[in-house]
Amino acid sequence: MADSTPSAPAFLSELTIPAEWDALYPLGELVAQLNEGGFLLLPGFEADFVLNSATGGWVITGGDYARSNAFEPQKAAAQFQDLTGDMRRAILSGYAQQAQRRLDPRYPGFTAGVLAELLPAPVPPVLPPNVSPFDLGAVLRACGASLHVAAVEARLVLGTPAEPAPPVTDEALLLASVVVFVAQLDLTAWLAHVAKCQPTSEVAQLLGALARGELYEAEWGGVIPKLVGYFRSKMSLRDRLSVYGPWSLLVQLFCVVYARPGQLAEIKAQSAAFRFLRQALDRLPADWAIRRGLILLAVRDGLEHLARTADAPGQAAASLNFAQTALLAAQLLPPLSEPTFAEAWLVHLVAQHEGYSWFRPRADHTAEPMMGWRLAAYTGSLGLSTLPFCQASSHWLAQGQVTNQFWTAAWWTLDLLRAALRQCYTLGQQNPLAGPKSGHEAVVQNLISRHAKFTLLLLEMGARSAETLQVLSMWGRNTAEEVPFKKLLAGYPERYEAVLNAITAHGYGPEAVLCLGELLAELPA
Prior knowledge:
The chain is mainly α. It is about 60% helix and about 5% strand. It is built from 23 helices and 6 strands. The chain has helices at about 25-35, 75-80, 85-100, 110-120, 135-140, 170-180, 185-195, 200-210, 225-230, 235-240, 250-255, 265-270, 275-280, 290-310, 315-330, 340-355, 370-400, 405-430, 440-470, 475, 480-490, 495-505, 510-520, and strands spanning about 40, 50, 60, 65, 145-150, 155-160. It has a two-stranded antiparallel ribbon with strand order 1-4. Strands 2-3 form a two-stranded antiparallel ribbon. Helix 16 (about 340-355) runs antiparallel to helix 17 (about 370-400).
């Protein structure tokens, strides 16, 4: 088959490798992980790995390796010297993505050096994670604020900056305030503090006035003249906001939040902050989708900053709360239309979760069942987040925009969902008397639904490769593995239905736990 991949892709990418070598991308990722652990493989290592078509992962069956405490690009490149053409590029695409994250921090320039040894110039760069230029940590430091977490409670400690900092831009102040709002921290205290520590910022003073309740108005007009300075006192608030261009939308959001006394407390009690943010963003003109995306990326990154900051021993629940909210921000992103942006988002998502100490899906949470259930619920949200990206890649393949699909993300998510279902089963055995009001029914139902969708999705992805490119995915190519592969993708509809019916009839009690155990017995380990 002729190589249909672009001759010079903009980035090394899973979406631009030939579909006939789709499973080599995660093999490259595994090699980078082994290198991180100090294992240097010998040329021809690919013969020592077997693809497990039921789990989507590679299994080491033997082979030789060397131990190394210091990696050099030339030595690492030697691992791949027996590979050529499309096979080499497919493995290197996965290797480079993981090496950039795992090895470059210890060996600056390592990944670029390896690629320069193996690929002809110009060497395509590794696709970076998609992040916004907004830095919540810098804004907090400039305002003398820090996050304090005690058990599951998080709050901002507001003080004086440790050292003089330049004024914060209006945009950064507004984005930071949105993060504080959706994170359900004390918004009123934050806005009042911002007005105090940023006295020359007109936006900060407007936000401070809102926090003090000075702008409670039934109509948009009537802004206190001292807030508008050189503007005429009769100018309405709506006219005043036009000065901020697209950022006026966020100022208006806070005006709505503080439209009447007690409204902010009601929003927090109903966990409705994201509904208000979504309504504000929906007022953006249709041709401002990029602006909407930039705002949401900034909010996502800010929430992830809080999640990382809160991630400490004994504080996992608070960190998970912030990470959950960050997923909600990501789910509000505009519809996918650009493959490179989508892959950069997935790269960011996986890298972010590898950094959370609490994100250990296969860990035993029986000693802390509440955390186990919360992590299971979070995994269901992850599935909801990655599903549209995987579906979009299949559409792009059919349209000829890419030559491969997001197989790695699909298998990664399916593995997480399977681990979460096993955790729910263990927790159900631990507390078999849980009844219809245990609150766990929705968690299990969502996980079952997501697992069913991803098994079906993998079947559809395999069919799309066969129909569009006349190529059979590596996960189903081996005749010996074809039957278990198809069995996995069949979806086990009867087992799914049995669990859901038991939950509907009796809640997540002994019957549902038994049915879930029967389903898990048929799933891969």
